[in-house]
Design a protein that fits this description.
Radius of gyration: 33 Å
Number of strands: 0
Largest sheet: none
Low-confidence stretches: none
Order of helices and strands: HH
């Protein structure tokens, strides 16, 4: 009788160990997917950061050009000019 209890206990422990290994494999896979997703986000952030810097540079160039072409005219004046047209 004791032998059957010990065999049953061994099988239960084997099942728990198998469950832990399968959960460990699941967690490992999720970790790899999160790292891949994080790498994708970092690449996207880098790309968007470059685009933003380029856009800010272009806006600054356009503002300098507008200031050179018509010094003393503010954004409110441009709004009035656009409304008049």
């Amino acid at each position: 009788m004791l032998m059957y209890v010990l065999i049953g206990l061994c099988l239960v422990l084997l099942g728990v160990t198998g469950l832990q290994f399968s959960y460990l494999a699941y967690v490992d896979r999720m970790n790899r997917e999160r790292r891949k997703y994080l790498k994708t986000l970092e690449d996207k952030y880098s790309s968007l950061s470059k685009r933003l810097a380029d856009a800010e540079r272009r806006v600054a160039e356009q503002n300098d050009l507008l200031e050179q072409l018509s010094p003393g005219i503010t954004e409110e004046t441009w709004a009035d000019v656009i409304e008049d047209r």
